Amino acid sequence: MASGKHSAPAFLRWLEFPFRVKNINTHISLEEATGHAMDVSARGPINQTGSFVGSAMMRLAAAQAGGRNKSVYGIEASSILAVGSLIVGIAAGITMPLVGAIVDHTDHRKAMGSVSALIVVLSVGLQVMLSAETWFACFIFEVIGGYALIMHQVCTMAYLPDLTHDYTEMAHYTSRFMMNQYLVQGAYTSMVIAISFSPLGLSNLSTARLAAGLSCAIGVIFFGYAWIFLFRKRPRLRVLAPGANLYTTGFKQLLDTSRFVFKNYKALKWFMIALLFSPEAGAGVVLAIAVTFLTFFVKMDVKEIAVVSLLMLFSNIPGAYISRKMCRWINPLNSFRLAELMFATVNALIAGTVTGATDKDKSLVYFYAALVGVAFGWMFPSQRTLAVALIPKGQETEIMGLISFFGQIVGWLPVFVFTVMNENGVSMRWGLASLSFFLVVSFFFTLFCGKFEDAVALVEHTSDEYLDNFKRKSGVLELNSFAEEGEEKEKPRGTDQANDSD
User: Fold this and answer.
1) End-to-end CA distance of the chain
2) Residues 408, 358 contacting (CB under 8 angstroms)
3) Which residues, in sequence order, are bridge partners of residue 75?
4) Where are the domains of the chain?
5) Looking at residue 397, what is its pLDDT?
6) How far apart are CA 415 and CA 432, in angstroms?
């Protein structure tokens, strides 16, 4: 894809048609926008697999340990999924500077995205061997896949600002991406549920295996197409200093960029601080806590949890639509704030009103699942749109990397609190309620961002100034060569896609 030409064979081209997203102003469909839509559509079923495999895995662990409160490998069986998410979160926080440095200081961004996608689908596919004898091996694969998925998101986030600098256009893109993800994820979950409730009469374990195999197949198709034919190879953004290495450079870059942002961009600073406490969509934190709560507190089986997931997924679609409208009507900052409050409120209601494993409690869970789905579908597109709106132009990739870092560095904290409470015999209701506390704290910090319009005006005012200073510091000739190369690639991309759309 170095040439920038659309090189998918004609007999495969049909596969991307449902995922093409046109710019609302130019009406051109960029191939990387299509790539994003296919990428998130692959991630949806893979994320969803965690609810099937995770619940079955914890049941197998509890059976081996002799009870949910008994220890296996030094961990309470009911904490297995939460501990896995905790390991993933800490590992991601430690290594993310290195991944960011590879994205910025090498031309391996596409390679990183492709390899991380491959590791994800392999890790999920290997979970089809889940059994009483192999559950711990599958737990290891779950951790590896979860980590690779976060690293993959860092790579794809670096591509996101290339689509547009206009936040209204970005709101359109992100909401459409989420709708694509939720539709594919919903179709996938519906298929698993339909087969599991069919005359075949699949057990919880067989349902989990089916889910893993099917999501692996979807990931191979969508990830494969997107990263082979749609995402482009990118030149390095900057050169390593003499004697420096990627790891130390990654930390130094994060530190320097953080100082620059905290000094010059008030709204962006407080937004990133808020992200420290707002659960990231793909980190698995909310999923790990929710599946544990539903499995052991509400005593739902894998099929019942799948129905909860399906209700959430189809509610995500109106949530994404609400996000797009709210980003226009009340701006992305206020949209993000309201979505966080809604999520915190519904989560608190679940913790306060679902008191056990009765039929009434299960009915309440189904009702709340739809509300949580709307909040999820509303919150995360608003968050992405807000991030792009607050980033000064010319610094998109490095600051998007910083935003990803802030979203992950202590993203493990909610699941850590949940695990500590569970290991000490505190009711899971209180562990679940702790999510609302983190969301409210995140909302509180967004109040220091100031007016959205002032933040956007500041970004517009300083973007050109930054670009001029950056050119003087980094060398005009080198940057010009990259700029010319980017212009040559960008021009045919829109033209080719316009012709393809026609």
Assistant:
1) 22
2) no
3) 72
4) 31-227+261-450
5) 67
6) 9
**What are the beta bridge partners of residue 430?**
none
Q: Which of 107, 115, 104, 149 is nearest to 250 (CA)?
A: 104
Amino acid at 24: I
pLDDT class of 39 with cuts at 50, 70, 90: very high
Q: What is the pTM of this model?
A: 0.78
pLDDT in tens, 215-261: 999 999 999 999 999 998 888 877 777 777 777 888 888 888 889 88
Q: Left if phi > 0, otherwise alpha if psi is -120 to 50, otherwise beta: which for 201?
A: left
Angle at 472 between CA 468 and CA 473, to 5 degrees: 115
Token output for 445: 């910090």
Number of neighbours of residue 251 by Cβ within 10 angstroms? 14
Determine whether 64 is exposed, middle or buried from the number of CB atoms within 10 Å of its CB (0-12, 13-18, 19+).
middle
CB atoms near residue 12 (< 10 Å): 12
- Quick one: which of 93, 86, 136, 147 has its CA closest to 419? 86
Give the CATH fold of the 31-227+261-450 domain.
Answer: Growth Hormone; Chain: A; (1.20.1250)
DSSP 14-77: GGGGGG--B-TTT--B-HHHHHHHHHHHHHHHHHHHHHHHHHHHHHHHHHHHTSTTSEETTEEG
